[in-house]
C-alpha cells in the first residue's frame, strides 16, 4: 500500500495569464495498492519482479483552468503493470505501463514510465526517469470549443488533449531503514498542448509495516 501527496507552486517565467502569475496549493494525492505477481528474489526462472498497481486519485486544492495551474483538478483512478529488475546489486531498471481516468471532463490517458537507478551504497542512490503521457482525446489550444466565452478569464485547459514526454534526474538518501530523502529535477522534452516546464522536487518517504 502507498500514499503520495505534496505541496506545489507554479510560476510563469515570462508574462503569465493572470495578474498573479503563480499558483500554489496541495497537489493531487494518490492511494495505491500493489500486488506482486512475481518476486525476482525467489523466481526459479530468473524473471524480473512483476506487479499490478491500482490507485485512487484525489484532486488537490489548487486553482484550475489556467495554463500554469498545478494540475487539472480531477478525481479518479489509475491501473498499471510494473516490471523491474536489479543487476549485480548496483543497477536497477523498472518500467510501468498504465491507464488513468478522471472526472471533470479530463481526457483519459495512457502513460509509461521508465526508471534507471544506480546504488552507490545501501544509503545513496542516483536515478534517471523518462515519462510518456498520451491523452486519448480532448481539445486543442486555439481551436473551436477551447474558449467558448471570450469574456471568461479561465479557459478549458483541463479538457485539453495533453501529450508530453519528460526526462529527469534524482538523488535519494536513506536516513534510516524507514526514512528516505530525495531531490529531483525534470524537464519537458516534447509535447502537445502542454507547457515547456522545468520542475524541481524535494521528497520525503516513510516506509512502515501494516501487520
Overall, the morphology is globular
Major sheet size, sense and barrel closure: 10 strands, antiparallel
Tally of strands: 12
Binned, the helix content reads under 10%
Structural class assignment: mainly beta
Share of residues in strands: over 45%
CATH superfamily: monomeric porin ompg
Q: What's the structural domain tally?
A: 1
CATH architecture: Beta Barrel
- The poorly predicted ranges are none
Distance between the termini: 12 Å
Q: Over all CA atoms, what is the radius of gyration?
A: 19 Å
Number of continuous helical runs:
0
H/E element order: EEEEEEEEEEEE
What strand order characterises the main sheet? 1-4-5-6-7-8-9-10-11-12
Summarize the topology.
Elements: E1 2-4, E2 7-11, E3 22-26, E4 29-38, E5 49-58, E6 76-87, E7 91-102, E8 109-119, E9 124-135, E10 163-174, E11 179-192, E12 198-206
Antiparallel strand pairs: 1-4, 2-3, 4-5, 5-6, 6-7, 7-8, 8-9, 9-10, 10-11, 11-12
Pfam families: Phenol_MetA_deg
InterPro entries: FApF (IPR025737)
Describe the structure.
This protein is mainly beta and 211 residues long. The protein has a single domain (2-206), classed as Beta Barrel (Porin), CATH 2.40.160.40. Helices cover 0% and strands 55% of the residues. It has no helices and 12 strands. The chain has strands at residues 2-4, 7-11, 22-26, 29-38, 49-58, 76-87, 91-102, 109-119, 124-135, 163-174, 179-192, 198-206. The strands form 2 sheets. It has a 10-stranded antiparallel β-sheet, with no helix packed on it. A two-stranded antiparallel sheet has the order 2-3. A hairpin with a 3-residue loop joins β6 (76-87) and β7. The mean pLDDT is 90.
Amino acid at each position: 500500500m502507498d500514499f503520495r501527496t505534496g505541496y506545489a507552486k507554479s510560476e510563469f517565467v515570462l508574462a503569465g495569464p493572470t495578474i498573479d502569475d503563480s499558483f500554489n496549493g496541495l497537489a493531487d494525492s494518490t492511494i495505491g495498492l500493489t500486488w506482486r505477481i512475481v518476486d525476482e528474489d525467489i523466481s526459479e526462472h530468473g524473471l524480473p519482479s512483476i506487479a499490478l498497481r491500482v490507485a485512487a486519485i484525489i484532486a488537490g486544492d489548487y486553482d484550475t483552468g489556467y495554463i500554469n495551474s498545478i494540475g487539472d483538478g480531477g478525481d479518479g483512478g489509475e491501473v498499471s503493470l510494473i516490471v523491474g529488475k536489479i543487476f549485480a546489486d548496483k543497477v536497477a531498471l523498472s518500467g510501468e505501463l498504465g491507464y488513468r481516468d478522471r472526472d471533470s471532463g479530463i481526457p483519459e490517458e495512457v502513460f509509461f514510465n521508465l526508471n534507471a537507478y544506480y546504488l552507490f551504497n545501501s544509503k545513496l542512490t542516483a536515478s534517471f526517469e523518462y515519462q510518456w503521457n498520451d491523452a486519448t482525446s480532448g481539445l486543442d489550444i486555439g481551436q473551436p470549443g477551447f474558449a467558448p466565452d471570450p469574456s471568461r478569464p479561465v479557459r478549458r485547459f483541463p479538457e485539453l488533449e495533453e501529450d508530453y514526454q519528460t526526462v529527469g534526474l534524482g538523488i535519494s538518501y536513506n536516513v534510516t531503514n524507514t526514512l528516505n530523502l530525495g531531490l529531483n529535477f525534470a524537464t519537458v522534452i516534447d509535447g502537445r498542448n502542454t507547457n515547456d516546464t522545468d520542475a524541481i522536487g524535494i521528497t520525503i518517504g516513510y516506509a512502515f509495516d501494516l501487520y
